[in-house]
Task: structure prediction
Amino acid sequence: MIQAPKGTKDILPKDIETWHFMEKMAEEVCSSANFLEIRTPTFEATQLFSRGVGDSTDIVNKEMYTFEKNERSLTLRPENTAGVVRAYIENGMSRLSPPVKLWYKGPMFRYERPQAGRQRQFHQIGVEMFGESSPLADVECINLAVSYLKKLGLNDLVVELNSLGCKECRESFKTNLRAVFEKYLPELCEDCKVRYEKNPLRILDCKNENCGKIFQNDTIQKLINSDFICGECDEHYISVQKYLDDLGIKYSKNKQLVRGLDYYNRTVFEIKSYNLGSQNAVCGGGRYDGLVEMLGGESTPAVGWAMGMERLASLLPEREPERLDYFIISTDTEKTLILANEIRSAGYKVDYDFRGRKFAKQLDKAIKTAKNALILGEDEIAKDEITVKNLIKSEQTTLKKEAFIKELLKK
RNA sequence: GCGGGUGUCGCCAAGUGGUUAAGGCCCCGGUUUGUGGUACCGGUACUCGUGGGUUCAAGUCCCAUCAUCCGCCCCA
Result:
């Protein structure tokens, strides 16, 4: 028996209503804020990710599905910001009047050990905004995420906020971090030793118990809590908070929120649920002012976020499948075939029993699946009539078939 | 990549070395040639993830392997 590949899941009909709901709400919320949908390829040149996402990240180092074709290295997208940025540059979207606001949905691929809330193929909904450096843009994005989650009916979510500063202040912070951690270098875990060289900011993200103990140290706490960001970055961060307050969006500041993607600067945020187990981030995002330029475009400020749809789905209640408008009960399968076709052409959902089973069995099926039963038995056929039985109100009327069809077309 | 749990029908499950592998849901048929989900009766696993081994005897014990779940790491 061939099984679905490890870490992939079938989205079955019983769950599809939830997925339609998530997609429909995303479309509504995004277009209400003038974000336009974009669809980019599911695979891209490997270089796009190694340069865009950053080669100090786990995503690029060990989680990419990469394959060669005609001496080209291609990779199944592990996230979609790099792809959207590529499309933005390639299609000359910098010529559009800024800000350019885009949203997307689709599958992403990461080669990881599957776990609750973590799959190798998973789906994201995300937004990207280009060409606006104002903190308003950051807040518009965060607000969009919060509005969307609210629209889905999700409560008990926490927004966490941090600022990573700009290139300049980040470099000086990195230098400071290295200076402080130098003493503890032998005690740090293996991963952190690598992080020390490549990106010491990510040491703060380490969950290793021993490293956690080291973080308790006074000088380190002082450094973590110090406002290393420069005046301009601080001003930006304060404005973001002010606008969030204006909107009544609650958030908590988390100085250890660093994020594993290299492209972020200034504002970063996550939205978490405590009903999710250890993979508790439902949304993650931030500002990435350097990425467009790094990928060959003009220097363009940008902000965005992505949400994991499987994680959202697991927080949503199950939805009942929509009922059929009609279920035809009949012993004459030929007449039924024709009638079903006519009703479907008029735009209604119809089904019927293919095997011409007994009346009681067919009625049973109608009760389970439809709003109305259409009875087309010997009596009706003889008089060219049809009986419409409303299964909810428990009322029924018999009328000429012509009249029934005419009635359908009228609605 | 590392640690732990679990694999018996489509789903939930009993079974703890000894004849023919409970039960429930769903599905199918009947009681009932045309009007309400009830009730009652009947049907659906040549076999317990797979391969070895131990034993007179294995779903039950051992080993391996695969799958899956949970945690670490990382992220959505």
Chain A is about 40% helix and 25% strand. The radius of gyration of chain A is 28 Å.
